[in-house]
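Loading example: each entry is read as two labelled lines plus one structure line.
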Amino acid sequence: MINIALPKGRLGDQVYSLLETAGYGCPAVRENSRRLLFESEKNGVRYFWVKPSDVAIYVERGAADVGVAGKDILLEYEPDVYELADLGLGRCRMVVAAPKGFYDTGERTLRVATKFGHIASRYYAERGREIDIIRLNGSIEIAPLLGLSDVIVDIVETGTTLRENDLEVLDTVVPISARLIANKAAFKFKTAAVEELTQRLKGLV
Amino acid sequence: MIEERILKPEERAALALRALYGQYGYQTYKMSKFEEYDLYLRNKEFLVSDRILTFSDTNGKLMALKPDVTLSIIKNGEDLPGYKQKVCYHENVYRVSGGAGQFREIMQAGLECIGDLDRYDIFEVVLLAAESLALISDDFVLDISHLGILTALLESYSEDPSLRKQMARYLAEKNSHDLRLLCQKENMREEDIVTICDFSGIYGDMESVLTRLRPLCRGEKMYNALQELEQMSCLLGKTAFADRIHFDFSIVNDMDYYNGIVFQGFLSGVAQSVLSGGQYDKLMEKMGRSGGAVGFAIYLDLLQDLERRARDYDVDVLLLYDMGDVESTAQTVSRLRQAGKSVSVQRCIPQRLRYREVLDMRKEGQR
């Protein structure tokens, strides 16, 4: 039996469809219910829905053998897990954005509003730029408009929200997509099952 | 005489391991809890976490609560031709660990073999790592890697240390998709990309890994390392644990300190590796020592996960007694203990005690 942590929401639904196509279906998942735990003995899988940012924790701590998490979460929290496949789903970009016409003269400490403090710090450290991280939990786009920050580091899918707030992309930090991750100990004790699942998913993307 | 059933898994393991290491002539090394901070400052990268608990001693010297045992052992040894210092330890170390990023006291057991080493010593330590795991649980896996192979492979592709570091990071994650992108970005040849991506996927029993590894090897350095792995496979293949030992090149450790054989141990039911070790001649060199060194540590705290299931009862018998009735109470307790039962003597039923049975010796009016 493989325990699989799925991220709640649209990405999770897409990932489940992929797993279903790969032969790991569990019909109860499709039923509309408030249940969070589903099992298919026939296909040897147990699914549970968790908050997307928590998937990596469930996997790292071994509550799930494998899971699907965004590359943004993996880069931000650096969980001690294996990253076995890029599922190609939920594609977007982590970008640096600023109000249209912004120019960084480099004279002052750059104020950066973001949910992803670690990723932003690393990006600017590589460039030797002094920054001040302003950690926010949502509506990041508003920070430069109110003078709270100079730029933002955030995830962009289509760019509509940025455009509607008169912001433009200055640079792409890293492309993001959903990744199949595995607990290291689970990989050792369920090697064949985890490798089989990985290969079947890789065959579909 | 200690009854084994009352011991926690980590206590049972600590006793069994000390006996095992003694059989191989490893001497117990008892050390002070403190060390001069300067030792860790000079070797920060060797430590699991670079955050250290410090304080000033009575002379104003900056001291640290030990975050590591190995550095202290190396610091105190001496180099003599043909001599090997073999020590084992059971110590608490203090480092940042866990999700909250707080300092924790971590119970660690392990051993070090330091000095004029040869291949027998490396084999003995790897064997002891496997035997240590087997003493704790039947269901274990010991993964072995060789940094000589990894270093040679990466050096054959790039002269840029930061690029090699990034490639090693992807190998550690078994992340062949990002490794491929990185190699493509660096304009590496497609056949080289295929080789290194193949390499990242190699995992399994010793013989099948060697079969897949042989065609990927090139250069003298890599062949020497391969030959060492082949010998290791041959020796370990004759032990009782042969099918529990795998080769896995995702173990990369810190290549500035480690070289040669490195390994990690896992137990079914524990989510993290419980054993970690390897050959660290480069650390010896950095600390001005001439010999080689190999050793490992077992994180005993993690063994708690092996017995997470709570006991159903706190005691077998709850004995309720009258204050004046000391003698017969004492006799009853003695009789129950001789019958192998645990007893909690109370005057009334405690709210938070779970018991199998109640023996009420109180007189009618006192109940």
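The two ends of chain B are 38 Å apart (CA to CA).
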